[in-house]
Amino acid sequence: MINHNYEKLQGSYLFSETARRTAAFQQAHPDRNLIKLGIGDVTLPLAPAVTEAMHRAVDEMGRAETFHGYAPEQGYEFLRSVIAKHDYQDRGCDISADEIFVSDGAKCDCGNTQEMFSGDVHIAVCDPVYPVYLDTNVMAGRTGEYDGATGRYAGVTYMPCTLENGFVPQIPEKMPELVYLCFPNNPTGAAIRKEELQKWVDAANRSGSILLYDAAYEAYITEEGIPHTIYECDGAKTCAIEFRSFSKNAGFTGVRLGFTVVPKELKRDGASLRDMWFRRQGTKYNGTPYIVQKAGEAVYTPDGQKQIKEQVAYYMENAAVIREGLISCGYQACGGVNSPYIWMKTPSGMTSWEFFDYLLDHAGVIGTPGSGFGPSGEGYFRLTAFGSHESTKEAVERIRKM
Length: 402
Ligand code: MLT
Known about the structure:
The chain is of the alpha/beta class. The protein contains twelve helices and 17 strands. It folds into two domains: 4-45 and 303-400, Aspartate Aminotransferase, domain 1; 51-301, Aspartate Aminotransferase, domain 2. A hairpin with a 4-residue loop joins strand 4 (146-147) and strand 5 (152-153). It binds D-malate.
C-alpha cells in the first residue's frame, strides 16, 4: 500500500539530523553559546524595499477593489517579465516571461520537476550533492538499494567532485537522461567557468539528456567568466531547465519564492517540457501568494537591487573571514569566492561526523558534515557565511584556539 521506495532513504534529512544533534547538545550544555554556521539560512532581515512592497500588498489585499484571490499558476506577469528582462535578456539570454514559472522556492521545484520524467530514467548527480536531487529520485523509485559500504544507491551515476578536479565533475562517458548540476555549488562552493559549462550543454544536446541546473547561488558570483545562468551557453534552451531562488540573494528563506525556467525549445519524445510543467503546476500548485510576488518584484527595483547587493556583500565578507581564517590556522579550505559556502578538509583524518562533534564540543560551532552530502564528501566539512560579522569572527577565533 505504501511507497516502499521511502524505505531505501538513509536516516533523516541531513539538516534535520544536524538540528537534532545540535538541540541535544544544547540541552546537555545549556550554558554554552553555540554559533550556527550549519544550514545555509540567512540572518539579515529583509531589505526595506521588500518589506515596504509587502506592506503595500497587504493593504491592497484588505480592500475589495485591489484584493487578489488565487494567483495565476505560472506567476503574475509583473514578476515574470521583470525576471525575464533582468536575469536573462539583460545578460543576452533569449528567455521570455512565458518560460518562467514562479514558485515557492527552488527546493520544491528541484524535487517536483522529476515527475515529468518516466520512472525508469537514469540520473547523474554530483558527489557531494545537495541531498534533495537524489532523495526525491529515491522516493520516486529511480534508484536501486543503498549500499552501506560505498554510500551509494544502485543505478545512479555519481560524479565525484574532489580537490583533484577542482570540484567540477567530469562529464560521464555515457550521459544519463537526467543530469543534476548546481553552480556555484552547494556544498563545495566551487564555480564553473562558461567554457566548461558549454561542454556539458554540448554533451547533453548530443546525447538527448536534460540538465537540471540549480543556480540558486548565482548572486554570489564575484569573478569574471563564471556564468550566472546556463542560458549564457549556446544551445542550452534545447537541453536545460534552470532553478532559481530568492532565498539566498534576497533573504526569502522564510518568505518562500523561487522560479524555474523551462524553455519552449525543450522537447523530448515529441512533448514540450514547458507545456508539461505548465500542466503540472496548474494541477498541483495554486500559485505563489500575491504579497510574496510583490516582494519579489521589489527586489528588481533600483532600491531593491542596491539593498540586496549590500546584503550579499555582507555575507561575502564573512566568507572571506572564514576562508582566510581557516587557511591561516593551517586548514585546507576552498569556496567562499563565488559562493557563501566554505568547504574545508577535516583535520587529522577525522570523519566528517567526528569533526562535527569535535567542533561542537571544542568551539561551540555548528557546521555541516561533508559525508551528509555524499560519499565523496567524507573527510570534508561545510561552513556557511550567513552568520553575523560578529559571530563569524568569533567562530573563527574559537577554531583558531581549538
Ligand atoms: C543548505 O544549507 O544547503 C541550504 O540551506 C539548503 C536549502 O537551501 O534548502
